[in-house]
Amino acid sequence: MSEDREERPLDREERPPDREEHYLDREEHYLDREEHYLELCENPVQFENASSVNNVFFDEANKQVFAVRSGGATGVVVKGPDDKSSVAFRMDDRGEVKCIKFSIGNKILAVQRTLKSVVLPDKRSLKQLKSQSINVNWYQFCPETAVLLLSTTVQGNVLQPFAFKVRAGSGTMSKMSKFEIELPVVPKPAKLSLSERDIAMATIYGQMFVMYLKHHSRTNSPTAEVVLYHLPREGVCKKTHVLKLNTTGKFALNIVDNLVVVHHQSSQTSLIFDIKLKEPDCAVNTHQPVLPARSIHPYRIPLAGPAVVPSQPPIPCQLYSSSWSVFQPDIIISASEGYLWYLQVKLPPTVNLLQDKGKLMDFLLRRRECKMVILSVCSQSGEKGRLPIVATVFDKLNQVYKEYLEAEQSYTAAVESGPSRGSAAPKRPVRTQAVVDQSDMYTHVLSPFTERKGVSHKFIIAVLMEYIRSLNQFQITVQHFLYELVIKTLVQHGRFYMLHQFLQYHVLSDSKPLACLLLSLESTYAPAHQLSLDMLKRLSTANDEIVEVLLSKQQVLGALRFIRSVGGHDNVSSRKFLDAARQTGDQMLFYTVFRSFQQRNQRLRGSPGFNPGEHCEEHVVHFKQLFGDQALIKPSTV
């Protein structure tokens, strides 16, 4: 397993004769699929594999694979991350190709055939813009940050970075502060001791780092470690993190979803590190792997060609092969098999591998595709029956939720106040999957949890109240549907005394929807009617709005009782109530409401009939069709 540079063709591999037997031996190791938290992407970039007539090169800047046949005479095929960046052409065979690249956008091709010359086939001219005189052992370039890193001095451990900025038609090069890599042993006499294979550059959590793979020495640490040096655009580069590998051997590094992935060839496993999971108050943070070492998920290569039998199974790919080439941030190439993969993190297996649920939440909340896994952790925490764990999970969740709400409020306030002179336009905060709101929790966790069999209703209520407690702690306004869920759960289990206390001591905040729910519970719990009225009075809400809410929930009789209790029955629209009663499809409800308004008309006007201005003619016809003329209240019989 190697981190070959793009200047060399990627290695060719001779397959071992016992390859099939090798995988049969390992098949049992792969049975537990949920153990594998790393996987190769499903749709890799495919290219012609390396052979005696085909050389394969990789350009890190454009993420392009070049398959060069016979020095280009019989074709050059370029494959990129997508079909748009793929191209094929031919060029004259003028000797061995040592390196080949396109400029951004595939506009200019550059070919290197000798150590000291680069050829541009379309004969463009170049102009020197700036030069630096410095002795260089080797170099690395990070295309994402446009930073060039040069190894200097005899031992090679003094690194000099340069930053490049490209503008329309021109570019600038600036010298950054040089820094020294701490070697495990200083050789005497001095000789080159820092290899480019042990250095990688990457962006982690928006900051640039130089990663140094520090191998063990006989006198110092018995195991290898990865040392991270933070490289700011301005200022001094400092050693900030040490990742303990707890083993020795050949390693390769990737960055996936802001995680440092360390591949170990001899054990055929990988480790992941999260530098945000750090010890407080330390100048240099020392990290252990987040999870136990595990292999990348097995990958099978489908057979291709005219002789393939449809039922023939795909061939297992040899993971951690010595011919693998690893590139930043997340690329693995097998030149011998003709595949370029993007490495990916699978989050579901981490749930059972990381027992500390607080640490697990910290880990998951920083990952891109985390929402559904986080919701599953919340559900599992409820099932386990330990309230302190539930509280920790909810608090971790709501801290991120609160930060997002505050950022949204700041953005809204900045937009409403208008742009100030000299300041940049406000940027709307990005809602990541780590933002799990109350609707998400209600739909995926809390509502299903209340219906779960075999769980104590006391614990169910405790979990619901714990989530509400957490929201209040972070000063997040609790949505009424959560209170409704609490009330329905209390009523379902006959916990009326607790419901009464929650309302009396304002554990459940007043709201119109909550008051309407209480009104609907009157037949189940008689005091609910008065509790509802008290809440409505505290809200000082317009009576018409309360009636509308009740009617929208088809609580027609509840709306009638409410409007009577506040003395508004004589003035309400009879058509509104008759419409709502008819929409329920309940014939006896329609009968009761219709007769109620006939009685009101008789009392107010001396006649049970409806005035033309009330537009109730269609309801009178409907009533007659259902119950006949004899069911109408007659003026003479009242």
UniProtKB/TrEMBL annotation:
GO cellular component terms attached to this protein's record: late endosome membrane; lysosomal membrane; Mon1-Ccz1 complex
Domain Mic1: 368-611
Gene: rmc1
Domain Regulator of MON1-CCZ1 complex N-terminal: 56-123
InterPro entries: RMC1 (IPR040371), RMC1_C (IPR009755), RMC1_N (IPR049040)
Database matches in Pfam families: RMC1_C, RMC1_N
Transmembrane stretches, start-end: none
Region of interest called Disordered, as start-end residue ranges on this chain: 1-25
The protein's name: Regulator of MON1-CCZ1
GO biological process, one term: regulation of autophagy
Domain of life (superkingdom): Eukaryota
The organism of origin for this protein: Cyclopterus lumpus
